[in-house]
Amino acid sequence: MNGANNNNIKSSVLTKLENIVNILKNKTSPPQLIMMIFFALIWVGAILLALPISSKSGNSIGLLDALFTATSAICVNGLVVLDTGSVFSTFGQVIIMILIQVGGLGFMTLGVMVAIILGKRIGLKQRLLIQQAANASSAQGLVKLSLYIVLIAFAFEALATLILTLRWQSELGLGQGFYYALFHSVSAFNNAGFSLWPDSLSSFVGDPIVNITIILLFIMGGLGYMVVVDIFRKRSWRKLSLHSKIVLVGSSSLYIIGFIIIFLLENWNPATFSNLSWGERVWAALFQGTAPRSSGFNTIDIGSMLATSQFFIIILMFIGASSGGTGGGIKINTFVVLVLATIQTFRGGGQVHAFERRIAGETVMRALAVVMSSLAFVLGISILLSITEGILENHFLDVLFEATSAFSTTGLSMGLTSELSVPGKLIVIFTMFAGRLGPLTLAFALAQKKHKSKIGYAEEHVLIG
């Protein structure tokens, strides 16, 4: 009798859960559902990291620090309030690595893989979710794109793990060398910036193997899966999409500019480059000129860099990686579109174009909306942090750096993260969450309806400049 009652209770609970899921599917838009799933994944990660087994000491690190770490991992940020290598146990580090992988690949991509393995059908609702999560322009071919994404990610991570294992086995041993190589490969490709060393990769500032491997990983992850797939499919510059061309040219230009500026500026800084040989300076400038585009690793102390270099890194972090990739920021394609629109305005107006293709006016307005909303968000968060963390104890550049790093999911810090107050941690958690979802996705998710004006007004000019 009791068994029958238990079965009835279980059946009733499952029915209610199915009803809740169906209501969520029917009542929520794809952006809203993505936000809710991200939120749920963060809390699952936080609960796991708060367990005593996740800490080397055997004591819980506390729910707030666990929530901060889980948010940073799932949002592939890299900001940490606790040192990953010395505070977390192997279990906790593996949880962090899994959260990074899920956050970087996207839960919908992994969901597609599971559905295919189980023989499930991918419906229109699921395809719309994949489109929103992958930031794709069309819902066509998304299942195949998801398969490509997983294959590309695992292929790059596996190759990098092999290379770094061979590099580190002499110092760490084969087992630990493999584990460190796997962790840093997953972290680098997904632009997370988590490291098992307290000084990130500063010990390898002049190591060509570590530098090249890590740089290539976060560049490939930051380019965006659609760009990488486009390159593998077409293998011809002429056949590439306009999006791919803009991302490749824009990213290459910023990498070169970043390297040159960091190299020239920091050569005057005895706190960073004085103890380095010229070869190590080149590697350090190359790494720190490319890393701020969203990777979060560092080979020199960010807090010791010149204020000019730090502000330049803020600009690079704000621009970020590419749409559809593992990085954050306003995205390089957004930045390039606005630059092209500005140049065209100076030339007298007309169509905005690139590589013999016209860019739609709606795209330009969307890019402007992303930049303005992101700029307002970062400045607002900076003001809040300056209040909670004490502007007298910290220079405003430190606070602006922290806010930009959290929003752009970069993970670099001038040292403020480990000193954050409780309100400061909560603000940064919210900033990382909003930065990962993106300002427009958040706006679409929170908006109830699309309001279109039914009234047409007379046009009148407004003075500009």
Could you explain the architecture of this structure?
It is a single chain. The protein is mainly alpha-helical and 465 residues long. Helices cover 65% and strands 1% of the residues. It contains 19 helices and two strands. Strands 1-2 form a two-stranded antiparallel ribbon. The chain is globular. 43% of the residues are buried. The mean pLDDT is 83.
Question: What layout of secondary structure does this protein have?
Answer:
Elements: H1 2-27, H2 30-50, H3 63-74, H4 84-87, H5 90-105, H6 107-117, H7 124-134, H8 142-172, H9 174-189, H10 208-223, H11 225-234, H12 242-266, H13 278-290, H14 307-319, H15 332-346, E1 352-354, E2 357-359, H16 361-388, H17 396-407, H18 422-437, H19 439-446
Antiparallel strand pairs: 1-2
Helix pairs in contact: 2-3, 2-5, 2-7, 2-19, 3-5, 3-18, 5-9, 6-8, 8-9, 8-10, 8-11, 9-10, 10-11, 11-12, 12-13, 12-14, 12-15, 14-17, 15-16, 16-17, 16-18, 17-18
Features:
mainly alpha; 65% helix; 465 residues; two-stranded antiparallel ribbon
Please outline the major beta sheet: 2 strands, antiparallel
Classification by helices and strands: mainly alpha
* Fraction in beta strands: under 5%
Order of strands across the biggest sheet?
A: 1-2
Order of helices and strands: HHHHHHHHHHHHHHHEEHHHH
- Measured as a percent range, the helix fraction is 55-70%
Rg result: 23 Å
Nearest-integer average pLDDT = 83
Separate helix tally: 19
Low-confidence stretches: none
DSSP, total strands: 2
Categorize the overall geometry.
Answer: globular
The quaternary structure here is single chain
Give the end-to-end Cα distance, rounded to a whole number of Å.
81 Å
